Amino acid sequence: MTPLPRSATDEDTTDEAGGSIYERLRDDIIHGRLRANERLKVSELASRMGTSTNPVREALQQLRGEGFVIMEPNRGARVRPIDEEFVRDICEIEVLIEPALTRWFVGIVTKADVEDLERIQADIERLNFTDELAHSQLDMSFHRLMYDKHYNRHAVDLWVRHREILWAISRGFPTSLGRQANVLSEHRELLDCIKKQDAEGAAQAIGKHVEGSGRHIIERMRLSRRGH
Amino acid sequence: MTPLPRSATDEDTTDEAGGSIYERLRDDIIHGRLRANERLKVSELASRMGTSTNPVREALQQLRGEGFVIMEPNRGARVRPIDEEFVRDICEIEVLIEPALTRWFVGIVTKADVEDLERIQADIERLNFTDELAHSQLDMSFHRLMYDKHYNRHAVDLWVRHREILWAISRGFPTSLGRQANVLSEHRELLDCIKKQDAEGAAQAIGKHVEGSGRHIIERMRLSRRGH
DNA sequence: AACTTCCAGATCGTACATTATTTGTCAAGA
DNA sequence: TCTTGACAAATAATGTACGATCTGGAAGTT
Q: Which residues touch A196 (CB under 8 Å, ≥6 apart)?
């Protein structure tokens, strides 16, 4: 339907290859440039992407496996809705998983780890949300440092996937000042608990952190939907 | 490498279409008929399945999205190892998720729900593990009855996926008598807590249930690996 | 022995054929 | 006249075939 509903923040895309077809489609879905339940016709996408149909079909199959598109036999693919419910759902899952990962981390944390975390946290506070991309990378490495050593790779992968989705959604949304302050204080509280070897407190802190983050994203989504 | 490593319990497969290509591949991976890290060559699979390469490629892409195969550009697909670690990982995730789902269920359970659950539980006890397939279907509907009404579809989907994987792995493995008794008593304990409106107790009961189930599957996997 | 060249084999992309579904048309009946 | 049903054409998904491109290893040269 909509001819070329790409956002204003298009860096490279002449008209063909941006990243891989998979990445472009996934990005378009997560950002809502492809509307919920919109039909995805392979030939249409192929001509838009400037390739033949086969790469598109394979990208769609991969996205189907990840749950971003829904396919019915002989009836093609549709966009799975990425709405506030969706965000709430994956945040609720993270509220369950991340405290468990964190609790375990407190048990194996080393002095060097704490120093690394404090260094990253200092960078975050110094940056103070002036650069969205840089902040998100620092925040990612802060949490990644805790989870990367975990033995449960499946849980960590799940976290990474959810995290990527949430970040893709919230990209472009501004972070409210209140949320900024909360992020910093929650990180500091988490760090304190880790240093005190208080696993339970750390788990609670990260739980609050995830919940607050989810609430903020949903709030922003609501506002932007109204603002449309 | 291995020409046709299909199990003895092959019902239909003449030599071509069993279910879809996707299902056959997925099943072969989960059951270990395709060994860990084994290379998956599209043309080889295509001739084995009796189709051209394209359907195989798409099935592989879908499996990649679900995490069952790993693909590197220009270097093809490999089987992701489905080992004891993998089972432990997804069970640990379920130990986090299922209690949360159950806790919520206790809050909205109706008289009719309890009666349904008791009916299913009675069927399970009457069957007493004489028919593996029938038992697993009853067990599935027991838990599904609790989770199907949950608002967090994403969490429930995750549960279903994990459940399918675990069931596919444990299919063919015998259930030890000790585990059989535990399954029954854990279900009864869960039912009691639900009837008493004891959400916390129910959550703990389901946690024990999942953990015990995971332990049992891993034990069986170890034995079968030795037995080879 | 190390480096280069070349070739077999596999992946990736394009084009086309087949099959299923949707859409549009037209005529018969209420 | 409006609805309804059957039938035909268009549209899109699914499957097949083939060429282009990349990788890995073997043979050959220095």
A: none
